[in-house]
Amino acid sequence: MAHIRFYKSQPKPHITKLAELGMDKEQLEADFKRYYGHRLGRDENCRTLNYAYQALSMAISDRLTERWKRTYNAYKNQDCRKAYYLSMEFLMGRTLSNAMLSLGIHDAVDEAMYDLGLELEELVDNEPDAGLGNGGLGRLAACFLDSCATLGLPVNGYGLRYEYGMFSQDIVNGEQIEKPDHWLRNGNVWEIERLEYRQRIKFGGRTETRTDGNGVLRVSWVDTRDVYAVPFDTPIPGYQNGTVNTLRLWKATATDEFDLQEFNAGDYAESVAEKNTAENITMVLYPNDANENGKALRLRQQYLLASASLQDIIETWVGRHGHDFASFADKHCFQLNDTHPSIAVAELMRLLVDIYGLPWDKAWAITSSTMAYTNHTLLPEALERWSVNLFRQLLPRLLEIIFEINARFLAEVSARWPNDTSRLRRMSLIEEGREQYVRMAYLAIAGSYSVNGVAQLHSELLQKGLFRDFYELWPHKFNNKTNGVTPRRWLAACNPNLAELITKTIGDGWLTDLSQLQHLKRYVDDKAFCGRWREIKQQAKQNLIDFKKQELGFDLNVNALFDVQVKRIHEYKRQLLNVLHVIHLYDRIKRGDTANWTDRCVLIGGKAAPGYFMAKRIIKLINNVSNVINNDPQVGDKLKLIFLPNYRVSAMEKICPGADLSEQISTAGKEASGTGNMKFMMNGALTIGTLDGANIEIREEAGDGNFFLFGLNAQEVEDLHHHYDPKAIIQQDADLQRVMRLLECGHFNPFEFGIFDTLIASIKSPHDPWMTIADFRSFINAQKRVETAYRDQERWTKMSILNCAASGKFSTDRTIREYNNEIWKLTPVIVDNGNV
Ligand code: KVW
Fold first, then answer.
1. What is the H or E stretch that residue 453 is in?
2. CA 819 to ligand 1 center in whole angstroms
3. Within a domain: residue 64?
4. Which residue, 48, 64, 353, 386, could crosslink 235 as a Cys pair with Cβ 3.0–4.6 Å?
């Protein structure tokens, strides 16, 4: 790429020196008008909100850019150690309101828009979600970036710029219909394309070995079909601290060779189709959350992310230090978000050995002291394995490197445990059998200096179960980092009324030190404070009702208990258990058992992986049950069941302030952490939950009197598998019998014979891994305790306040501090905050 030339030879071009942009209402308004009128060419006759949203976003983006450059220069000048968060998913959601909050200009912008006759909230709601993730794992990456920037840590994110994000969910006749999410349709104001930093990525071909002048074996990877990865950068602002970090997302494009081939062969159509093969790589996010998927395109995506990111980093290094990698490991750290980017272990070896000529041992020392791996699940079906044959076709050189890593690794194992062949077979990075597979989690562990789980229980189970052999070999690598969520988005921005009350009561220190929420405990007996707390919760519930009113066609009762379960639809998360409870309540109403009744509105939302039959059928069941209940005049306001379509980040921002009860009811030992549970707690919802994932720590913090516990624990689930007999349990429980009878007689599917048979069979099977029936009675009893508590509104409000007050631990600021103190070891960098 050609560089700019200046007519006078100057050390630095002066065209980049800019005056500071004003942060006051007048300046913002002027910039808005200029963008709206000049850049976008609109006037008062323009009828769509979109251009107003864009003009405002451009004005705000400019202010971020100033801080972004200052941050970049501060990192460069200090030559500091940096961490890189490598993730296939960054579920960013919307950017505008977060940007305003970070810059501290929300009120100024609000006033400026008001002057112009615009409603800021409408502009904010116009922004499409950046839905580049499935669920918790992708949103965690986004919350992490927010906390890193807020803590002034030099951490950048690397990911993929999918053209199509998480599909949008329609419900037609009770069933999920997926619609592609072309989120870039109206452009993306927040990103900057950096063509000058594109990288070349190899695929296919073969390897050649020769001996160099010094008698050393050299391997080259030749006859490859290359693509380019082009980076798009998004600013990640810290909270009012002048730091703006970078999220760099790669887009795949064709190389020029495609044009050449087309020219020479004269086969235009074929050649353009080839071009598509290249651009397809980053076309779409795989919509599978915690389900294995062995598709070649997914492996291409993973390699493109790893290779482009590492080449990018090494290019910067070589630009400054030449081929001297002696202190590379002191300055870099790569956090692998699950095994998805773990091919980076082999890719860094390839770059160091093949391209920069380092001896294997030196390269391995660098790799295994810069990589750190986070595991997010114990579910065997979610553990990535790639067929060796597929690997050989697509990435032949990387397969060779993995075999070499494995040979040396197995030598280490057999030195430690001589003659233990079954251990060697268990631990090998290659799974043997009719077909060979690469075990990506083992590659990640072997290549990393840190391996962490995402909640206390999960980390313990990893050490005792899934990674037991590795824990025996390298106990020092293993650690826990309990997840969190960013309190800026998940309290300050999404619940401004509650945030204001908190700030009025204890000051605004909680925004960057969430443990300060504990000072709220002093106010649980303050009548005025409790009254205001309750008012705000009621208002949030009303907002949620108003938001849903149009699509529902009816109002919900604001005094009903709002009982919410929103998350991906998966059998282990047990939306079915929730439905069994709803059917039980319905049954009680129908038989007149309604003494001391608590009105309840059950809200369930979430997407099913398009190929996950059972999950889709669960959605259908929820909608069918909902239809029967909501249209039964005898039920009325006592009970409602609502399916919330197209659950996503921006929906959760409206849902969590209005929730009374948070459903966290997974089979114990299956949910690694959960993070929705933390968002609800922060917004004053109470949790009904099992001893699973971070629920355990939530209960510890809130106190067991402020948490509705039920169900088997992980050990009991494990033990029960040998003699689980759901049919016997049903027989001994009259309520459960009635619920099963309603389901089995087709009460909820009178014109759709048999459609729920597989669901019914799955929970009645002695092999049901999720043990829904086992926890039914205990769940019903816990729900009764919920009702009793809710009927005493004063008691409930106190419990709500105590939950919020105890949620400090679940800020990603705490999580990231732990990552930094124990894994990354970065020094915070103070950036001049300009005129904020
Ligand atoms: C493939 C996942 C997308 C594609 C997980 S486990 C595996 C995946 C796999 C996602 N996601 C979730 O990670 C969250 C963040 O740590 C946890 O809170 C949650 O329990 C876990 O299921």
1. strand 450-453
2. 18
3. no
4. 64
Q: What is the side-by-side strand order in the sheet with 686-689?
A: 639-644, 600-605, 561-566, 661-664, 686-689, 708-709
Based on the domain organization, do 477 and 562 belong to the same domain?
no
The catalytic residues are 376, 567-568, 573, 675, 679
Instruction: Provide φ and ψ at 167, rounded to 5°.
Output: -55, 155
Tally the domains of the chain: 2
Domain finish residue from 452, 483, 514: 483
Same domain membership, residue 402 and residue 273: yes
Q: How far apart are CA 223 and CA 207, in angstroms?
A: 9
In a 3-state reduction of DSSP, which class is residue 332? strand
Interval 92-143: pLDDT, tens: 999 999 999 999 999 999 999 999 999 999 999 999 999 999 999 999 999 9
> Residues 334-371: pLDDT tens digits?
999 999 999 999 999 999 999 999 999 999 999 999 99
Q: Which of 373, 377, 673, 819 is the pocket-test mutation for ligand 1 (most atoms within 8 Å of CB)?
A: 377
Domain hosting residue 454, numbered range: 85-94+129-483
Which residue positions in the chain have pLDDT lower than 50? 835-836
State whether the beta carbon of 87 lies less than 6 angstroms from ligand 1: no
Ligand 1 centre distance from Cα of residue 466 (Å): 16
Residue 504 lies in a domain: no
631-650 in b/e form (b: 16+ CB < 10 A) is eeeebeebbbbbbbbbbbbb
If asked whether residues 576 and 478 sit together in one domain, one would say no
Q: Taking the complete model, does pTM exceed 0.85, yes or no? A: yes
**Would you state the pLDDT for residue 538?**
98
- Rounded to the nearest angstrom, the distance between the alpha carbon of 240 and the centre of ligand 1 is 30
Are 558 and 452 part of one and the same domain?
Answer: no
474 plus 563 within the same structural domain: no
| Residue 697 Cβ contacting ligand 1 at under 6 Å | no
